[in-house]
Write a structure and sequence with these properties.
By secondary structure, the chain is of the alpha/beta class. Helices cover 44% and strands 20% of the residues. The strands form 2 sheets. A 6-stranded mixed sheet has the order 3-2-1-4-5-6, with helices on both faces. It has a two-stranded antiparallel sheet with strand order 7-8.
Length: 236
């Protein structure tokens, strides 16, 4: 069961890394409902959150969340103790807003500001977050941390982005097809020597004489001398 849960988490994390540039160390924004659920299920967030992500994780909350927990009194004191041990993210809300409105406001600005995973058990807040593309949501169920699958709004935005990219690629392809190819000049090979400029090989005449003999009618041999002409091959 744990292995299946971790594989599912890695698949969804890859989706957000590829489509929305989420990179470790991941930042997780907690509200009081999530911290209360962790307390009830005896989950150590500092220990279990990095294990679930298989990466370094920075957890934080907001001043609005802390002030709301203080107002709610002793019933949520345990959640307050867990929340206040984490970094407090500046939300600049004066006076403070309800925790759900504060987190929703931060989530709506994540395309231009820091990127967060929103950790909450608030169903109304979760439904509102799902309408914002590219917002990953964490919740606790079956005594463990889970990441919500990408919402319909997120999937639709990704499909639109891919369609736009495909259109741009197709336009570039058509432009390249309409461009006439540049004719390259053929490179001529190295020229051989001019045959008219090549000197002919001279025949070497030898001064030696060869003697041949022929028979005459009287039966006597008659000797003749012939000059021997040597060609360059025979001179060697």
């Amino acid at each position: 069961m744990k292995l299946k849960r971790y594989k599912r988490a890695q698949k969804i994390l890859s989706f957000y890394r590829y489509n929305y540039s989420y990179q470790p160390p991941y930042r997780v924004l907690l509200d009081g409902t999530f911290c209360m659920a962790a307390l009830q299920n005896k989950i150590s967030l500092s220990e279990q959150m990095p294990k679930y992500f298989c990466e370094e994780v920075t957890m934080c909350t907001t001043r609005c969340v802390l002030e709301e927990l203080v107002k709610l009194g002793s019933k949520l004191y345990g959640a307050f103790v867990i929340c206040k041990q984490f970094e407090v993210e500046r939300c600049s809300h004066e006076p403070s807003l309800p925790a759900s409105e504060c987190l929703l406001h931060i989530a709506s600005r994540m395309k231009t500001c820091s990127k967060f995973f929103i950790a909450t058990q608030d169903r109304a807040l979760t439904d509102s977050l799902r309408k914002i593309p590219g917002v990953p949501i964490l919740f606790i169920k079956y005594n463990g941390i889970l990441i919500d699958k990408p919402s319909s709004a997120t999937n639709e935005e990704c499909m639109k982005t891919r369609t736009d990219v495909d259109k741009i690629i197709e336009m570039k392809k058509q432009l390249l097809e309409n461009v006439e190819p540049v004719k390259r000049k053929k490179r001529k090979g190295p020229k051989g020597p001019n045959p008219l400029s090549i000197k002919k090989k001279k025949k070497v005449v030898s001064s030696g004489m060869s003697v041949t003999s022929t028979k005459t009618a009287s039966g006597k041999r008659r000797r003749k001398k012939k000059a021997v002409v040597c060609t360059p091959s025979s001179a060697q």
